[in-house]
Design a protein that fits this description.
heterodimer, A: alpha/beta, Spore Coat Polysaccharide Biosynthesis Protein SpsA, Chain A, 8 helices, 40% helix, B: mainly alpha, 2 domains
Chain lengths: 239, 115
């Protein structure tokens, strides 16, 4: 941590050589007092070098751990280096860095531990695949029933956290894709969660993590993990 | 049970038990994993020497012939041991994840970015 910069932007990236530099410069161009960390998730292209050249701190995982595992590496880094606030966004350029300021502001103002950037709040007809929309609707309903509040975009990779929240996540976080289960767990650990609208560009690299048979597995995995999350003992906020 | 069958079963059970002890002695097999295997060897031995127990178990589970009981036991045992391995693999992959995360952070702190 350097001087006044008590916030860290974490960008997990897997084979994003083409976009990661733009994302890093985009974040730095916001002129916010924050450091930028790119977690290179075992890429076999020049992701780490491109990120470092664009001025980011880089942590390189020796092999691909998964999106959640890479993000958790960022949480651990932030914890270790004494950051107070953290914002994470994807390395493919779909998250507009202009939304970082409002996200961080919301978590800095206190009262909220986790601020989720939602693509749906502002732009209700944000276009995505039909199957994905149904999936999102179901999990939104589950999140609503279990946490008692509306979370429109639980899969959002654009979130701001305070230290208490990322300390909690650095202990327990899914390796693959954090989702509704994480929101429910955090809610059960008495974290204050809020959503604010963010601007999202359709994925620049055009790759979707939900294709082929993956959506079926995804729905199955989410149901299972939500069920066991609810059956687990209430997690403790601090240890 | 035929005498020859008995001899064969006892030999097999003893061979298994000796093998397990030897593996533990040479530290090729951890004690915590050996008990399930030892249990198998001992069960074979007990059921061979005490055939009536096998017959009692057979009628208790409603099977017609003793071989069914043995097959069911063997299949259940194999399922349990693979499940046990899945549990171990899950915890090992979690440990590996934690290790590489720590390693990556420490490497970054040393300013060691070679790609």
């Amino acid at each position: 941590m350097t001087g006044e910069r008590n916030a860290l932007a974490v960008i997990p990236a897997f084979n994003e050589e083409a976009h990661v530099a733009d994302v890093v410069s985009g974040v730095r161009a916001q002129g916010l007092p924050l450091d930028v960390l790119v977690v290179d998730d075992g890429s076999d292209d020049g992701t780490a070098r491109a990120a470092a050249e664009a001025g980011a701190h880089v942590v390189s995982l020796p092999f691909n751990v998964g999106y959640g595992g890479a993000l958790q590496t960022g949480f651990k880094y932030a914890l270790r280096n004494g950051y107070e606030y953290l914002v994470h966004l994807d390395g493919d350029g779909q998250h507009d860095p202009a939304s970082i300021a409002p996200l961080l502001e919301a978590v800095r103002n206190g009262g909220t531990d986790i601020v989720v950037g939602s693509r749906f709040l502002q732009d209700p007809d944000y276009r995505c695949l039909f199957a994905r929309r149904i999936g999102i609707a179901i999990f939104r309903l589950i999140a609503r029933l279990t946490t008692g509040r509306a979370i429109t975009d639980p899969t959002s990779g654009f979130q701001a956290l305070n230290r208490k929240a990322f300390a909690f996540y650095s202990r327990e976080y899914p390796s693959d894709f954090p989702d509704t289960d994480v929101i429910i767990t955090s809610h059960r650990a008495h974290f204050e969660i809020r959503e604010i609208p963010v601007k999202i560009h359709p994925s620049v690299s055009g790759r979707s993590m939900h294709s082929g048979l993956a959506p079926f597995y995804y729905v199955f995995k989410m149901f299972l993990s939500i069920c066991v999350t609810l059956l687990r003992k209430r997690p403790k906020k601090e240890e | 049970m035929l005498f020859r069958q008995k001899i064969f079963a006892i030999t097999a059970a003893l061979f298994l038990l000796v093998l397990i002890f030897e593996l533990v002695r040479r530290r090729k097999l951890k004690e915590e994993y050996s008990w399930l295997w030892l249990l198998t060897g001992v069960s074979i031995l007990v059921l061979t020497l005490w055939y009536d127990l096998l017959l009692m178990l057979t009628s208790a589970i409603g099977a017609k012939v003793a071989t069914t009981t043995l097959f069911i036991a063997a299949v259940m045992y194999l399922i349990l041991i693979t499940l046990h391995f899945s549990v171990r693999i899950s915890s090992l992959s979690d440990q590996v994840k934690k290790l590489v995360q720590e390693l990556a952070i420490l490497k970054a702190e040393k300013g060691d970015i070679h790609n």
